[in-house]
Amino acid sequence: MTDDIITACTMDCPDACSMIVTRHPDGGVRLRGNPDHPFTAGFICRKIRHHLRRRQSPDRITRPLLRRGNGWQAISWDEALDRCAKSINALRHEPASILHIMSDGAKGVLKQTTKLFFARLGATRTRGSLCDAAGFIACIHDFGSRKNNTIEDLMNAGRIVNWGKDFSRSSIHMSAIIRNARKCGAKVLSISPGGDGNEAFSDVFIRIRPGSDRFLAAAVAKRFIDADLIPEAILLRIRNFPRFSKTLSTFSEDRLLERCDVTSRDVDALFRFYTSNGPTATIIGAGVQRYRRGGENVRFINSLALLSGNMGRKGGGSYFHLHSLGNFNLEWTRDPEGKSRRAFPMAVVGREILAADPPIRMIWVNGVNIVNQGPDSREIIRAFASVPFKVVVDAFMNDTAERADLILPAALMLEQEDVIGSFLHDYVQHVPAVLKPPGEARSDYEIISGLGKRLLPPIFLPSAETCFEQALDSPLIHGDWTTLRSKGTLRAQKPDIAYTGMIFDHPDGKARLPANLHDEPDPPDAFPLRFLTLVRRNAIHSQLLPEDQEMPPRVWISPHCPNLKTLDMEKPVDVVSPLGRLRVSLHLLSGLHPGAVVYRRGDWMKVGGGANQLVAAELTDIGGGAAFYDQYVRLENGI
Predict the structure, then answer these.
(1) Which keywords belong to this entry (predicted)?
(2) Residue 22 half-sphere exposure, CB side, CA atoms within 13 Å?
(3) Segment 152-162, tens digit of pLDDT
(4) Nearest-CA neighbor of 470 among 113, 119, 14, 106?
């Protein structure tokens, strides 16, 4: 007899799709979208569909593995956890010598217990993020918080300006809303370096030099100011407009357009979108903030939503990532003793490990393939090699697991219970476990709870049910753990329109504008092309099976790329940065900016990929984010 169970996707994706898992008597499993979910509405992406094959892969690690010389030995969970406890106990007098590295390889409330565990230890943590830290802080600087109109409110927009979101690869439910909005008469203008499939979703497309979004936004803002188009009512809701206006007065429009490589007609089109009757919504993709001036890019884009009167307005607003756990109560995840803890920026974690004083003696990694996903992968490898004991919780022998001394097999999506939110919509969902983990794989919660009991003195974590109850004890959620478990989903109680009346969340209720507009250095002569390591359609980050990784990796350039005339297309081609070189398969892509090289990120170094070994570890201007796309490279024929 088959049975159907409703659960939800916990991958690092905005949509948090509700899905139905059908279990067959022969052990077969089928996944499909849940048609009764009020937002995700019955369809799921191919990343979820590929998850079943990944989950059942013969390459999965299903027993604890201890490094023995150049090989691995399967050991029992008791021995594995005893070894971890022995190492931690020996370092309890100096807990800063233990480093915890964690990210969002899987989402969920219960995943936060690992943070709680290491907070109670007083271990060194990471700060910032590899994803959206600069944009997050930019919105806080501008508006005092990170809030959006509901995603459904896009249907009320007359026009939508998309700054860099790839609707063809990211967030199928936002893409569906965009398609429906266009059917209802909304016009869409997209801005990006091109080559991303957005032209099919757009009425107007502006191709821009990578990383220069702030100059285009500044050119439009300058037109607002020069034409005296900003009503006094809006100016009264801004704290520092005179400083902003003075900054822009030092730039001519021609200079701004030269920096972003667009024409005055492009500025005309964008200006019309923000000045026409009816509301204009602004969507900001994460890519625009993955440059050294990424926070400034986002802040100047936000300024257009503000100056045009579209903040606090139905059908308007500025959309960036929400906090996926923002609707929950997370006070319980913080150390009650409030220990002061050392923190390394995630984007430069390799450098920080190598320079640490006191030195790092133990690393615990969960929820992230940091060697592959962090910039300057080889520096991270050198850093790991300097640390006596490294524990990696993962399901596959990826680039980070390869550097461990002990690998603990992780349960994956569908194999563990949790509660999740979304960084796109306001629904929270129960995620029941519907399949048994293979072999001896365990959830992060099971692993860290078992370890805590072995310590001297022990660290006891709250029960899973207590964690769920405390997380749901939030003023935004009208329903408790019993209600959520019964209904499967609850909607957080938040206003449909953020910042109604242009009342913002700074103490004075006013918005802020960026005070400075920093110029962009010219690319080095030896490395003229921006290296854009963009999202894939079929997988989240590095969650790929080895057999799905095409080698050599593909890269794309414009047919008008100036580097092209120096290449013999019949010979091997390498991407070269100051950090090294990588053999690639070169392809031409019309519509891409001539100054860009596109690489679809996530493939592993161990199979011949790994773009981040070419990317320097640099921080964004604010937030402690990773400036991945600031890297310049060249293409040349290899030997």
Answers:
(1) Iron, Iron-sulfur, Metal-binding
(2) 8
(3) 999 999 999 99
(4) 113
Positive or negative, the Cα torsion across 391, 393, 397, 399? negative
Q: Which residues contact 69 (CB under 8 A, 6 or more apart)?
A: none
CA distances from 35 to 31, 32, 41, 85, 178 (A): 12, 9, 5, 46, 20
Contact yes or no for 7/417 (Cβ under 8 A): no
Is 65-130+341-487 a domain of CATH 3.40.50.740? yes
Question: Are residues 23 and 434 in contact, defined by beta-carbon separation less than 8 angstroms?
Answer: yes
| Stated pTM of the model | 0.97
H or E element in which residue 102 lies? strand 98-102
The tokens 């802040």 sit on which residue? 299
Domain 529-637 has CATH 2.40.40.20: yes
Q: Are 290 and 279 in contact (CB under 8 A)?
A: no
The pLDDT of 506-533, averaged and rounded, is: 98
For residue 545, what pLDDT is reported? 95
List the beta bridge partners of residue 555. 586, 599
- 409 vs 437: CA distance, rounded Å: 10
Render 223-276 in DSSP notation, one character per residue.
HHHHTT-S-HHHHTTBS-HHHHHHHHHTS-HHHHHHHHT--HHHHHHHHHHHHS
Dihedral sign computed on CA atoms, order 248, 250, 256, 259: negative
Distances (CA, A) of 583 to 548, 575, 597, 608, 635: 18, 6, 14, 8, 10
Rounded Cα distance, 61 and 441, in Å: 8
Domain 133-320 part of CATH 3.30.465.10: no
Q: Are the CB atoms for 489 and 427 separated by under 8 Å?
A: yes
